[in-house]
Design a protein that fits this description.
Residues 29-147 form the Pyridoxamine 5'-phosphate oxidase N-terminal domain. It comes from Glaciimonas soli. This is Pyridoxamine 5'-phosphate oxidase family protein. Helix content is 32%, strand content 28%. It is built from nine helices and seven strands; from the N terminus they run H-H-H-E-E-E-E-H-E-E-H-E-H-H-H-H. With 201 residues, the protein is of the alpha+beta class. Strand 1 (40-47) and strand 2 (50-57) form a beta hairpin.
Length: 201
């Protein structure tokens, strides 16, 4: 079992100079492109009740670049657990991983989060007249891109490797196992399309 940094470095050695130089403290022109084309980002936070890793998605560029040091992420309607938001209130440190469909490289942003309910800011993120509940403002501290090895190994974008949804338990089936046999899984699954349509924003 490895317990020290020295043990790790003996196995892995030191990072290449390029791996160090690709990390900067602001969003430059190249990194801006990844954010503007990304319809999906994973938000990681930590707080006194534990860790959270939350997917966020919308139209490409839904994460707004306010300036080179500030991002804004609309927090749309969800399940009201507020795991990420609770963590940010307690500990503002967060990490973002931007994914662009069909592209192997990803973009990582580390920084500190703030939660805003400013009326004008919320209005600027309205979709079909529906506002986000809040907006997460990210003060950027580090930005760098990851190479495409993870996507190449996983063949994530290869359509021949896509898994049929029917091979996994449905949402209703999962809820029934957790809530008991009285839960109507079939009714839940039948209503899911309409539920999604009415609750995206």
């Amino acid at each position: 079992m490895l317990t020290t940094i020295e043990q790790l470095e003996k196995i892995y050695g030191q990072p290449h100079e390029r791996a160090i130089n690709k990390e900067i403290t602001f969003v430059n022109e190249d990194y801006r492109a990844f954010i503007e084309f990304s319809p999906f980002v994973v938000l990681a936070t930590a707080g006194p009740e534990g860790l959270d890793c939350s997917p966020r998605g919308d139209t490409p560029g839904f994460v707004r670049i306010i300036d080179q040091h500030t991002l804004a992420i609309p927090d749309r309607i969800g399940n009201n657990r507020m795991d990420s938001l609770r963590n940010i209130i307690s500990d503002p440190h967060l990490a973002l991983l931007f994914v662009v469909p069909g592209v192997g490289e990803t973009l990582r942003v580390n920084g500190r989060g703030r939660i805003s309910d400013d009326a004008a800011l919320l209005e600027s993120f309205a979709v079909d007249g529906k506002l986000p509940r809040t907006v997460i403002l990210v003060d950027v501290e580090a930005v760098y891109f990851h190479c495409s090895k993870a996507f190449a190994r996983s063949k994530l974008w290869d359509p021949t490797r896509h898994v049929e949804r029917s091979r996994l338990p449905s949402a209703g089936a999962i809820h029934r196992r957790l809530n008991g046999e009285s839960f109507d899984a079939d009714a839940y699954d039948l209503a899911q399309i309409e539920r999604m349509r009415n609750s995206l924003y």
